Amino acid sequence: MLGSMALTRDQLAQRAAQELRDGFIVNLGIGIPTLVANYIPRGIDVWLQSENGLLGIGPFPAEAEVDPDLINAGKQTITARAGAAFFSSSDSFAMIRGGHVDISILGAMQVSQNGDIANWMIPGKMVKGMGGAMDLVAGVRKIVVVMEHNARDGTPKFVRECSLPLTGKACVSMLISDLAVFTMDERRGVFVLNELAPGVTLEEVRTKTEAKFEVSQTLGEMRL
To answer: What does pTM read for this prediction?
Structure first.
């Protein structure tokens, strides 16, 4: 049976942006999460925070506006919006560890059925370091993971137990993939399938998922 047409990276970012609320302080991880800044809903004013010491990230700069000294934690050149604040990395991590960031949207290599996340290294491969990932998953109020449901070789990334080194344990509140949206029922410690991407069936999600999950009685189509 042929699989459904996977959502694009931009569509995943668009769905994740719907979790933002007016006045939120938001941290965006590298990769797909950085695209969320392009889809902030109208009427919503959020403050984007970067671990290297900036609150108030603006739009990505046009080529003529690039300032090589103004970068985010992922080394991308950025702009600063009106009212932005610059501070030390230590102050930035105090903000994160103190619970002052409302939501962080991160990518992942694996998410387990109990909300563990592995998103910083694959053993045997060169990595630059963990960055702020471990602090983010421990200190931010809500962690949303945005990722492709399966790896390039087809193996599930939503698994019973992470086989890669953990970034954090039982910390993921929501998982948005190119197939579906799952939310964690924190009282029972189980993920619940709430939304299916257009053209995706429940059977397909079950086939491509190793993790155990429950299905919402109000299961519907993903809001894009």
So the answer is: 0.92
**What is the domain partition of the chain in residue ranges?**
9-221
Catalytic, 51? Answer: yes
Question: Largest alpha-carbon pair distance within the chain?
Answer: 53
pLDDT at 1 over 80: no
Residue 205 in contact with residue 195, Cβ under 8 Å? Answer: no
Q: Does domain 9-221 have CATH number 3.40.1080.10?
A: yes
* Alpha-carbon span 165 to 144, nearest angstrom: 19
CA distance to 98, 137, 155, 224, per residue, from 203 (Å): 42, 31, 16, 21
- Asked if 164 contacts 107 with a C-beta cutoff of 8 angstroms, the reply is no
Task: Kindly name the residue from 19, 51, 195, 204 that is annotated as catalytic.
Answer: 51
